[in-house]
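thought: fold this chain, then report.
action: predict
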Amino acid sequence: MPNDQTAVPPTCPQCGFVNPEGFNFCGKCGAALAAAENPGRVSVKAERRQITVMFCDLVGSTDLSARLDPEDLRELVRDYQEACEKAILAFDGHVAQYLGDGLLVYFGFPRAHENDAQRAVRAGLGILEEMSRLNENLASRNVQLAVRIGIHTGLVVVGEMGGELALSIWRWDKRPISLRVCRVWRSRMPSF
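observation:
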C-alpha cells in the first residue's frame, strides 16, 4: 500500500530554517530539531562535537559573604552574573549552569560556530571589561570584584542521556579541566 504522505522537511523551532531530511540539528543555528518533530520527547542521536567550555567565578567570594549583608551579597552576585551574561551572550555563548558565584558556559553548543574557541576567549576578555565597569559602580560601596576564568576546548558527545528531556553534553573530563585551570591560577594568586 503506497504512502500518500509526503515527507515534510524538518523546520527549526528556533530560527525557522528548513533543513534537509536526516538532520538532527539545524544547519543554520545548531538548535536540536527533534523537539520540533515530537514536542513531548526529545530524542537526538549522539553526535560528536568540538565545544569550548568556560568556567568563571568570583575571587574572594567567601570573604565577601562574611563582610556583606546577605541581601547585599545577593544583589552583588546578581550584578556580577548579569555583567558576565552580557559578555557571554555578545559572543553567542550558552550559560549552562550557575554554580553559586560560578558560571559554566558552553561555546559550540547548542549553536556551533567555526570560531567557538575565539568567541570564548573574547567573551572572557569581555567579562574582564564588564568587571571594570561594575567595579567603578561599586567603588562607593568599598567593594571590588575580581574573577577567575578557565577555558578549554575539546571533543564531546552530545545526545540524550538517561531518558532526560534535555540534551546532555558528556565526556566527563571537559568541565574539570576548565575548573583545574582556575584552581592552578587561584593557587598562584597572592593571599589578601
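thought: worth noting. The first strand starts at residue 47 and ends at 58.
final: C-alpha cells above.
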